[in-house]
Write a structure and sequence with these properties.
Elements lengths: L10 H5 L10 E4 L2 E4 L4 E6 L2 E2 L7 E2 L8
Antiparallel strand pairs: 1-2, 2-3, 3-4, 3-5
Length: about 70
């Protein structure tokens, strides 16, 4: 039986993506892309990031020691 694993994403491709709501940087975490600036998390469905701000979940914004 094949093993299902989390898809691997090219770091260069991820660096080109931005949050559609605030244009902040997106980071891969827990099978979703999370915006460091506004705290929205975008789902990844069947290996495809769904970058539609109406589909985003709001999570706590990441802090950088400020």
């Amino acid at each position: 039986m094949p093993t299902i694993s989390q898809p691997q994403y090219d770091a260069a491709a991820l660096s080109r993506l931005a949050c559609p709501a605030c244009h902040g940087d997106l980071h891969l975490s827990d099978e979703r892309l999370t915006c460091a600036a506004c705290g929205r998390a975008y789902p990844i469905v069947d290996g495809i990031p769904v970058l539609i701000k109406e589909r985003a979940e709001t999570v706590c914004p990441m802090t950088h020691g400020h």
